[in-house]
């Protein structure tokens, strides 16, 4: 990895690839925008795309803790539920028009989930490994039970009638476009922020903790601080995903955010490769779409998942991408290198 | 190594694009107008066929399929055969919404029978507001379901209806003055009925001596039952599903609860192989139908179902059978597959089914009388038709 | 008096947790693996009991024997196929834990496919009648459950402390490398531990069927989690600890419900876990684990 000096100047080649990526991103965005607008992608497909982007946010954020920090978290769905309920309650009761309330609710959801991240992270992160996994599982369950036991969250009934993100009476296509735009850019922001974080000094500290916590501490890294920071950041984005989810589906069911759901997110992160953001994205996309093609084999779906999970762990525990990242320039470099060799 | 990962997403998405547009055919079909070819009418189904709620979903799906076969064997709807297209939604709101969109957009169904449990049904109901597609749920009991929009109907009783009915019954027919309740707090069916029961019981002047709860997945109820026993109620109301009921009733006996047990339609199909039902003897519940009914169709249904699926039909299957027939009759009455026409026909429907004679009220809930059934010597005994005086 | 009844209710349930917790504790002691699939082994045991007792109509002793043997075999197969490779490679614990979750999912879904998802009833596995003890009446099922688990724990304690294989187990858990140098086959020891742990789960399964005569493919997950909490509470790796932890969790649950807070029972159980982990991470009877640098 080419490293610029601390002056902060970015090398030209890097600048170029930023520009290329940003350009491609825009092309991608407008391409799909157009396809949804003219109806080539119908609501069924765009609905799945929304789920897909939500899963990307969840998987990438979980990867920050489980992949880069190396701490297994089994309660990610708990943070998502905090965000989902916060956002839904806000849009339901704030009285603001939905076009204003929804963006605010996204931020609120993230902040509230982050607050829970601090509350849970401070005690939990004193533990590590299996114990941390179990304690986050415990906290996830506690959040679920509390949501069930409270009145303002609707208890077992959950929350209903959460407004969609456009005012009532908007037509289906604009709604699909609005959802797509929100969730697309939220996913982009999540990925960019986490990517930038991981590549920063702070990110390297986090990775150092994964590699050897004691050595990291010995070399002066404030491990507790960085662990908490990564943990809270992941919680924040899980909350953001929750907000979008709540307004996408319109109904919140406390039972949805259980241990199984946390495992499903973990599954995506693991299959993609713990420590690889591109891996997470690929896995989230694949595992969201795959079941739609497997309709008709529903009985076997979870069985197949389980077998895949075990096999991957046995033979390629690092997942699809390991800790590598996919990049165009990397790919181009490799292709040209091969060509040269061939010649 | 920059944010090129986005590009990968773009590539993936491009690859998908092919797949998506492949399965979405002509795309923006939207409403149900294009839903019938010359000789078939497409009807969609949504049910949890895997996951925790699978046993309910499978029964509903069986009931619908039987109804469709019967209708098709008898010449279909005005000569058109029904094509039944269903998807598993795994009891999940997201999956239900996706499956709903697929039914409406890809499969172009004219009407939907589903969903089975309350929350996915609510999610579907909310999404369906854009399409105004006629939907009837066989078994989603929460009052809010049909209130979501004028296109949602239901074939079963609502939670409040059953809770109030059984409170009246306990007071009027069982002569109870002290009642206790044990319900599943994580289940909206159970807690919904319990809430209505408690409110009505107080209104009727009965004393609610215990309002105990348990959590989804609990198997030990002895602590709550010991508390209840200490209060010595006349009636213990258990608005729970049959699987929990088996454990609760056995433990109630073990703990020594002597109160009269009663419950709601979730009790149906509590009797099963290897379940020692002596612990439930004398228990009463309100049901949508009676297996002892002299109606030939009911008996036919029961025997055909047993033969076909090698299990006893339950309330879910029966309601699904009725719901399908209601929808078929409404399509026939409407004389077209236009959404609004079907909805109007549905609202005006008068139907005689396995669960009795019914019409829809203004909130699109069925108006029919409840049957009180008791459990005696491992069988369901018809007690009476019961309509509480308002 | 009601209070005493509630305590006894808790003891009954706690004994089952304890039996399951023993398996967790033993396996963890030797392999440092949270065998997430352990809860599902109970489910396997319960279905074996169901198949033997109800479908094949065998007497109870045969059903118990079959359940214990079958579970032990399944336990060993899981260890050989899913875990051994990772254990040998000294793979990161996160991979082991994820594999265990995978095995758990596999068992649940396999059994759902075979037996369908609806609950199966298994009434009257154990003779049920009230036994008067002073002013109280204790159900025979509860009594059998408590007595059996105490007996099993004692037997296990003897096995671990007095027998050759028990010594091998303790040696391996103390220092696997040194044990190997002393000629102890860690592979055999680990396999044996899995067999014993799974066999215990089968006994737990039979008792479970006696107390809660209904089984589903998902019955193991919550039970397993709570048993795990019990094992951690008592001090993972410790046999009496697992017993004490199980009973404490059982009683805590029972009392929470008795006080009318049944809504938050699970929160209380996990709350206890969190408190214990924070205050005394090694559990009540556990040894402190040294951090290796």
TrEMBL record, chain C:
Family designation: Belongs to the binding-protein-dependent transport system permease family. LivHM subfamily.
Single GO MF annotation: L-valine transmembrane transporter activity
Compartments where found: Cell membrane
Name assigned to this protein: Branched-chain amino acid ABC transporter permease
Key words of the record: Amino-acid transport, Cell inner membrane, Cell membrane, Membrane, Transmembrane, Transmembrane helix, Transport
Main subcellular localisation: membrane
Domain of life where this protein originates: Bacteria
Membrane-spanning segments: 6-24, 36-55, 61-82, 94-114, 138-160, 190-215, 227-252, 264-283
CDD domains in the cross-refs: TM_PBP1_LivH_like (cd06582)
């Amino acid at each position: 990895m080419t490293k610029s000096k601390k002056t902060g100047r970015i090398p030209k080649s890097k600048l170029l690839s930023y520009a290329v990526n940003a350009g491609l991103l825009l092309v991608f965005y407008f391409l799909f925008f157009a396809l949804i607008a003219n109806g080539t992608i119908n609501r069924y497909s765009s609905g799945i795309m929304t789920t897909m982007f939500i899963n990307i946010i969840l998987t990438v954020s979980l990867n920050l803790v489980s992949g880069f920090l190396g701490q297994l978290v089994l309660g990610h769905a708990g943070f998502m539920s905090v965000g989902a309920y916060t956002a839904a309650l806000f849009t339901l009761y704030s009285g603001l028009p939905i076009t204003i309330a929804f963006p605010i609710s996204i931020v609120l959801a993230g902040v509230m989930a982050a607050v829970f991240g601090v509350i849970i992270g401070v005690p939990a992160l004193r533990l590590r490994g299996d114990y941390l996994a179990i304690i986050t599982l415990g906290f996830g369950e506690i959040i679920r039970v509390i949501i069930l036991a409270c009145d303002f969250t609707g208890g077992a009934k959950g929350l209903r009638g959460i407004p969609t993100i456009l005012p009532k009476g908007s037509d289906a296509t604009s709604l699909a476009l609005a959802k797509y735009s929100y969730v697309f850019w939220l996913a982009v922001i999540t990925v960019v922020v986490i990517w930038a974080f991981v590549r920063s000094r702070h990110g390297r500290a986090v990775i150092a903790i994964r590699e050897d916590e004691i050595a990291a501490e010995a070399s002066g890294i404030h491990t507790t601080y960085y662990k908490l920071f990564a943990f809270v950041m992941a919680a924040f984005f899980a909350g953001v995903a929750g907000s979008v989810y709540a307004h996408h589906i319109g109904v919140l069911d406390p039972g949805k955010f259980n241990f199984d759901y946390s495992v499903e997110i973990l599954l995506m992160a693991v299959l993609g490769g713990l420590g690889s953001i591109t891996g997470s994205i690929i896995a989230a996309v694949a595992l969201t779409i795959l079941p739609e093609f497997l309709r008709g084999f529903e009985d076997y779906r979870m069985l197949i998942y389980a077998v895949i999970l075990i096999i991957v762990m046995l033979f390629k525990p690092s997942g699809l991408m390991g800790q590598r990242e996919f990049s165009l320039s990397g790919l181009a470099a490799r292709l040209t290198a091969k060509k040269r060799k061939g010649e | 190594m920059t944010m090129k990962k986005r590009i990968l997403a773009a590539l993936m998405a491009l690859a998908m694009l092919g797949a998506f547009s492949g399965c979405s055919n002509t795309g923006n079909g939207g409403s149900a107008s294009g839903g019938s070819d010359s000789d078939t009418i497409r009807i969609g189904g949504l049910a949890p066929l895997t996951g925790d709620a699978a046993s309910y979903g499978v029964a509903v799906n069986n009931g619908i399929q039987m109804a469709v076969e019967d209708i098709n064997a008898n010449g279909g709807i005005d000569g058109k055969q029904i094509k039944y297209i269903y998807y598993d939604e795994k009891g999940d709101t997201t999956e239900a919404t996706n499956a709903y969109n697929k039914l409406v957009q890809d499969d172009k169904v004219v009407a939907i029978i589903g969903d089975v449990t309350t929350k996915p049904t609510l999610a579907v109901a909310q999404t369906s507001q854009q399409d105004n597609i006629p939907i009837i749920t066989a078994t989603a009991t929460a009052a809010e379901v049909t209130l979501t929009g004028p296109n949602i109907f239901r074939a079963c009783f609502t939670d409040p209806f059953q809770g109030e009915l059984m409170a009246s019954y306990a007071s009027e027919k069982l002569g109870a003055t002290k009642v206790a309740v044990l319900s599943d707090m994580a289940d909206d069916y159970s807690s919904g009925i319990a809430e209505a029961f408690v409110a009505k019981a107080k209104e009727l002047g009965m004393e609610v001596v215990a309002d105990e709860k348990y959590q989804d997945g609990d198997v030990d109820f002895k602590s709550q039952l010991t508390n209840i026993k200490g209060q010595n109620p006349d009636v213990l109301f258990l608005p729970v599903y049959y699987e929990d009921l088996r454990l609760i009733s056995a433990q109630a006996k073990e703990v020594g609860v002597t109160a009269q047990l009663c419950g709601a339609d979730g009790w149906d199909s509590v009797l099963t192989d290897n379940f020692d039902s002596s612990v439930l003897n004398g228990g009463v519940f309100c049901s949508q139908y009676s297996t002892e009914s002299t109606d030939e169709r009911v008996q036919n249904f029961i025997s055909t179902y047993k033969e076909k699926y090698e299990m006893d039909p339950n309330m879910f299957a029966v309601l699904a059978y009725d719901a399908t027939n209601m929808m078929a009759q409404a399509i026939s009455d409407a004389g077209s597959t236009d959404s609004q026409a079907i909805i109007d026909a549905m609202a005006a429907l008068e139907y005689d089914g396995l669960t009795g004679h019914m019409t829809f009220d203004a909130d699109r809930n069925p108006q029919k009388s409840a049957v009180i059934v008791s459990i005696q010597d491992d069988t369901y005994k018809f007690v009476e038709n019961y309509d509480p005086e308002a | 008096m009601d209070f005493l009844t509630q305590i006894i209710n808790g003891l009954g349930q706690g004994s089952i947790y304890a039996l399951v917790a023993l398996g967790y504790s033993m396996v963890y002691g030797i392999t440092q693996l949270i065998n997430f699939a352990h809860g599902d082994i109970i489910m396997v045991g319960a279905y074996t009991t169901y198949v033997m007792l109800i479908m094949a109509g065998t007497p109870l002793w045969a059903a118990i024997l079959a359940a214990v043997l079958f579970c032990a075999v399944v336990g060993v197969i899981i260890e050989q196929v899913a875990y051994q490779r990772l254990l040998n490679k000294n793979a990161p614990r996160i991979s082991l834990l994820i594999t265990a979750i995978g095995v758990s999912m596999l068992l649940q879904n396999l059994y759902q496919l075979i037996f369908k998802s609806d609950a199966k009833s298994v009434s009257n596995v154990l003779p049920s009648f009230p036994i008067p003890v002073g002013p109280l009446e204790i159900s025979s099922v509860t009594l059998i459950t408590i007595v059996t688990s105490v007996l099993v724990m004692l037997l296990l304690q003897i096995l671990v402390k007095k027998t050759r294989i028990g010594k091998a187990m303790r040696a391996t858990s103390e220092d696997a490398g040194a044990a190997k140098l002393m000629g102890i086959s860690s592979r055999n020891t680990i396999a044996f531990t899995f067999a014993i742990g799974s066999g215990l789960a089968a006994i737990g399964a039979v008792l479970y069927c006696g107390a809660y005569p209904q089984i589903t493919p998902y019955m193991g997950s919550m039970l397993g989690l709570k048993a795990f909490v019990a094992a951690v509470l008592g001090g993972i790796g410790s046999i009496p600890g697992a017993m004490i932890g199980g009973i404490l969790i059982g009683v805590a649950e029972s009392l929470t419900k008795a006080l009318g807070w049944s809504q938050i029972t699970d929160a209380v159980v996990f709350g206890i876990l969190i408190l214990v982990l924070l205050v005394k991470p090694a559990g009540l009877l556990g040894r402190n684990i040294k951090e290796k640098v």
